[in-house]
Specification:
The complex is a heterodimer of chains A (about 450) and B (about 260).
Chain A: E1 30-35, E2 45-52, E3 55-63, H1 70-73, H2 82-86, H3 94-109, H4 115-146, H5 151-157, H6 159-183, E4 192-193, E5 196-197, H7 203-228, E6 242-245, E7 256-259, E8 264-265, H8 270-273, E9 274-277, E10 286-289, H9 299-306, H10 312-319, H11 333-354, E11 370-378, E12 381-389, E13 395-401, H12 403-418, H13 427-439, H14 445-448
Helix pairs in contact in A: 3-4, 4-6, 4-11, 5-6, 6-7, 7-11, 10-11
Chain B: E1 7-12, H1 18-24, H2 30-36, E2 38-42, E3 54-60, H3 66-78, E4 79-85, H4 86-91, H5 103-110, E5 134-136, H6 143-154, H7 166-173, H8 178-182, H9 198-201, H10 218-227, H11 232-239, H12 247-254
Parallel strand pairs in B: 1-2, 1-3, 3-4, 4-5
Helix pairs in contact in B: 11-12
Classes of the chains: A alpha+beta (about 450), B alpha/beta (about 260).
Chain lengths: ~450, ~260
């Protein structure tokens, strides 16, 4: 389906296709590299690259996953329901949605949550980073580096790959066990609420969790070393990285929004510095930084700018890999993702060790009218939420900007820059290489198409 | 052993990917499953192209665009047994809440250029368009229920999935009723089993993410909610949520405005 499926009845979707396709013009000098439906990404998208006279004219990340209109139907729902609803934007990173929602709503309501609740939230987020990152680097991304259609095919092909896949499954399972212990279940946790948790985990549960994490710590370290030895295409660019930055913590739930080219703002100022645009080939809006355009968010951006705040062992490990940081090769994102897994395992163990239970599971909620915005670091990058509510706690307006929307233009620009290096290889292989470029960003298309509020038109 | 393995397809429509992710969350079982079943199409996990027929197709997501309407018919034609997985495929999903709003209003609220967007006026479950052989409920599905279904099919049995109310699970697990003991609103009496009474076990009321149980008495539950002081609009929101197109829930919700 990914290759050569121009007439594929299932996935050759018209939505998101540029209406003025230039494919028929000047056919003798024009070539199109087209991936109808990308595999091993979360959600439905494709790629079109138009090459004219040996020059890349345009690259589109087509997103035809149908919109789900979250921001419309959130209106009128209670603020207390929001974390359960926004979780459903993404089955891979529901905790990210719950975290950005809870923090934005607590900001709206002027609430402060105590330190132990903050620690439990970071612990929960560690679990999601682990399961989401391992899923991506081992199952969705790694097969690209060896030319396999899937991780299962890799595991079935060679015992050494089977060992890697089994290791990855063990680490992923440990991550999921964090989410299950604190959230109740792996996908769409039910225990997260505005103000804290519905029920606190018991000491015994946390001790068992720490033990499971200890058991995969070395496995996670070995996986980082394995990713660092992959064969990376020679490609670099002077990106503008954007991530949260916190004085002492590796960024997750708190900090200022900074970039590698001088941006340093309060997270609530995000709309002053970034804008969204609606392009015909995408059911997701593209984010741009005002005045400069595309930017890069996610694990590589975080690690490049914040690695000195990772756990001690993660820092040491990062320094041993023979990669010089900051690294401007997007293919090395897979290593950044793997290091963040090790960091998250390490941090999770520490958070459990240092945990002292709060007096109560959640802070009481008192409604008031207002607005609140927050950004947290989802596995794939910064996730912005903003809510407005009335004095009864009903949502009046919601805006959610997912990491994949933010990386979307950067992905297209990478394709435009990268495509000239693959023009001489066979079509099927060229398509595969382009997919790999996109997978560097671990795009989550369901996230991107949940939808963004631009402006409300009253007819 | 030249007996061909049964061919499994995994298909996605409008959804969050969480139900198909449950397959990849079977960390202890996935490689064993891959030995017994040919994972012939699963776009989230493999580049294998779509071709041929499927013994079992797992279908996630609701139908919400004109293209999907054609696609789901193709899936049916290619498949011996279609199992719809999750709240979106079986009950319209949370995105079905837009069915209660005019679609023009939804599109205008989120897009600068509404003319680019192709969408049906409603988000609807799979069974509105094709014959479904088995429905597996939940937002998300329970991965052990899914493994069970696959195992039963491999054994040649017609799979069965329980659909009693969550209440029974609370009794079995010795969870004290949160309605009776804490006065909390709980959808457990009308919600299908599958989660193991997760929310009551975490000191909160069930919010019906597994959809209606067998023959739910929604009116009795709604009047109980009224008697413990749940406001009318909140009662509506309880019923109009993750199973946004299930007739029993839609009708009960509309009685409370």
């Amino acid at each position: 389906m990914s290759n050569e499926s121009k007439h594929d009845p299932l996935h050759d979707s018209a939505a998101g296709e540029a209406p003025d396709s230039k494919a028929s013009v000047n056919a003798s000098t024009e070539r199109t590299i087209r991936v109808a439906a990308m595999a091993r990404v979360e959600g439905e998208g494709g790629i079109t690259i138009v090459v004219r006279d040996g020059k890349v004219e345009d690259a589109q990340l087509r997103i035809f996953e149908p919109p789900r209109f979250f921001e419309s139907f959130l209106r009128g729902r209670s603020l207390l329901e929001v974390p359960d609803i926004t979780a459903r934007i993404c089955g891979i990173c529901p905790v990210a949605y719950q975290m950005s929602s809870c923090h934005a709503i607590e900001k709206l309501l002027g609430m402060n949550v105590p330190a132990p609740i903050k620690s439990l939230r970071r612990l929960l987020y560690c679990g999601e980073w682990i399961e989401s990152h391992v899923l991506h680097f081992a199952f969705l991304h790694a097969p690209d580096f060896f030319g396999y259609e899937s991780a299962i095919a890799m595991a079935q092909a060679k015992p050494e790959f089977a060992a890697i896949v089994r290791s990855a499954l063990a680490v992923k399972k440990a991550g999921n066990s964090i989410v299950e212990t604190l959230g109740g279940r792996e996908v769409h946790p039910i225990n997260v609420r505005v103000g804290g948790f519905y029920k606190l985990p018991s000491r015994a549960d946390l001790a068992a969790l720490a033990e499971r994490l200890e058991r995969v710590r070395d496995v996670a370290r070995d996986l980082v070393r394995w990713t660092a030895k992959l064969d990376f295409p020679d490609y670099e660019y002077d990106y503008e990285y954007v991530a949260l930055s916190h004085p002492v913590e590796y960024p997750m739930n708190e900090g200022r929004l900074v970039s590698s080219k001088g941006l340093n703002i309060d997270m609530a100022e995000y709309p002053d510095h970034f804008e969204e645009r609606h392009v015909p080939h995408s059911n997701a809006l593209q984010s741009l930084k005002k005045g400069s355009g595309a930017f890069f968010t996610g694990p590589l951006a975080r690690w490049n700018m914040n690695r000195d705040r990772a756990t001690v062992d993660a820092r040491v490990l990062g320094g041993e890999l023979g990669i010089s940081w900051p690294c401007d090769n997007p293919f090395v994102s897979i290593v950044a993702r793997a290091i963040e897994v090790f960091h998250a395992v390490d941090l999770a163990i520490r958070l459990i060790r240092e945990y002292e239970p709060p007096e109560r599971a959640f802070e009481p909620v008192e409604f008031r009218a207002g607005s609140g915005a927050w950004i947290t670091e989802a596995p794939r990058g910064i996730l912005y939420h903003r809510y407005e509510a009335d004095d009864k706690g009903a949502v009046v307006a919601a805006t959610i900007i997912a990491p994949t929307s933010q990386n979307q233009r950067q992905i297209e620009e990478d394709l435009i820059r990268f495509a000239p290096t693959i023009l001489d290889i066979p079509q099927a292989e060229a398509e595969w290489k382009c997919e790999q470029v996109v997978r560097n960003y671990d795009p989550c298309i369901s996230c991107a198409t949940h939808f963004l509020t631009l402006n409300i038109v009253n007819k | 052993m030249n007996v061909p393995k049964p061919r499994l397809g995994v298909f996605k429509f409008a959804s969050c990917d969480g139900c198909q992710l449950s397959i990849l969350d079977c960390e202890d079982e996935i490689l064993a499953v891959a030995d017994r079943v040919e994972i012939a199409y699963f776009l989230e996990a493999t580049r294998r192209p779509l071709e041929g027929r499927f013994d079992v197709s797992l279908v996630e997501g609701s139908i919400s665009s004109p293209e999907q309407l054609e696609q789901i018919k193709d899936v049916r034609e290619r498949s011996k047994f279609v199992v719809t997985i999750g709240a979106c495929a079986n009950g319209g999903g949370i995105q079905g809440l837009r069915n209660f709003i005019s679609i023009e209003e939804s599109i205008a609220a989120v897009y600068a250029n509404p003319s680019y967007v192709k969408t049906l006026d409603k988000s609807r479950p799979i069974a509105d368009f094709i014959t479904v052989d088995l429905e597996l409920q939940g937002c998300p599905i329970n991965k052990y229920q899914l493994l069970n279904v696959i195992a039963q099919m491999l054994a040649g049995a017609r799979p069965r999935v329980p659909d009693h109310a969550v209440c029974l699970d609370c009794k079995r697990r010795n969870i004290v009723c949160v309605v009776v003991s804490q006065g909390k609103a709980c959808m457990g009496p009308v919600t299908s089993t599958g989660c193991g009474a997760l929310c009551p076990a975490h000191d909160r009321g069930c919010f019906a993410c597994y959809g209606p149980s067998h023959q739910p008495n929604t009116a009795a539950l709604a009047s109980r909610f009224e008697s413990i002081g749940v406001p009318s609009d909140q009662i509506r929101r309880f019923f109009h949520a993750f199973y946004s197109t299930s007739p029993a829930f839609v009708a009960e919700g509309l009685r409370h405005v």
